[in-house]
Amino acid sequence: YNEQVYGLTDEQKEFQKVAFDFAANEMAPHMAEWDQKEIFPVETMRKAAQLGFGGIYVQPDVGGSGLSRLDTSVIFEALSTGCVSTTAYISIHNMCAWMIDTFGNNEQREKFCPDLCLMEKFASYCLTEPGSGSDAASLLTTAQRKGDLYILNGSKAFISGGGDTDIYVVMCRTGGKGPKGISCLVVEKGTPGLSFGKKEKKVGWNSQPTRAVIFEDCAVPVINRLGEEGQGFGIAMKGLNGGRINIASCSLGAAHACVQLARDHLLVRKQFGETLSNNQFLQFRLAEMATKLVASRLLVREAATALQDGRPDAVSLCSMAKLFVTDECFNICNQALQMHGGYGYLKDYAVQQFVRDIRVHQILEGTNEVMRMIISRNLLTEL
What we know:
four-stranded mixed β-sheet; 11 helices
């Protein structure tokens, strides 16, 4: 199972190794401290950006690495072995940078992307509201045009990085009801009328702050709109297709780390006069965990390739990967905790943090229930 490099090119193996080394040396030693003290590790992320991880699938002319979705998945899986929470934030930041790179004009790309790719500035994705989660198209935040400004009013909930980041990619209503009335604006920190709620106390993902983002007559230049009026929902969903692969990749890294932790524990822990590794039930459990990890990895990589190639089944595959992999990898990590017995429930052991950190992957970037809606809808409307 450990042969993660199966099917990868030499170049992919190379940056996989760079990401694994960065995770082991720069992230894993601090993972527990970042969690317990709720530290947003800005300097560590800027070091990651020096390796090209701030704009992995952003085009090189604005500072990005210009890599593929598969390359991106391999990198996020490797980074997550060192800290899921931090890697998950980096993945959201990458999604925002990609949205500006892909849907912005050249002025917008040149203004925002270079700083984002270096992580000199950090980005947040603002779709969810207190009253619109899974029903994202019902969002209420409004943007009324006044000359060359939009006046924003409303609030966003559960925003990763909110309050600590610099660039907010905001979905807001410029037109009528439903998805066709939504536009996408880039709002910069320091804009009058932009404020933040209290920092949420979360079960996991504690190395990134989560706050409400509040707009009160917040004036944003029309030139900060990505694409045309009414294109915002499409932009948001296209961002999330990649985001879902990225978050599934973060789950893979956690499961990979937990299989290793479980194996190492079984080899040293003795009960009934022998190590747990001699217990066939636990041997078989470990075998099942490794098998499900490899199956999950293959699904993520297939979805990444489909999205890269623009295949018609890409949206379904991204949704399948998000549904299957975040569920299976949570179960793998939870099983690894069980194998640790009482030690697994102590914060001195990393396994419990992997469990806490990836639990939310089954909820965000489209709940796994919404993934089932997308997959079944695509199946039932195929001609």
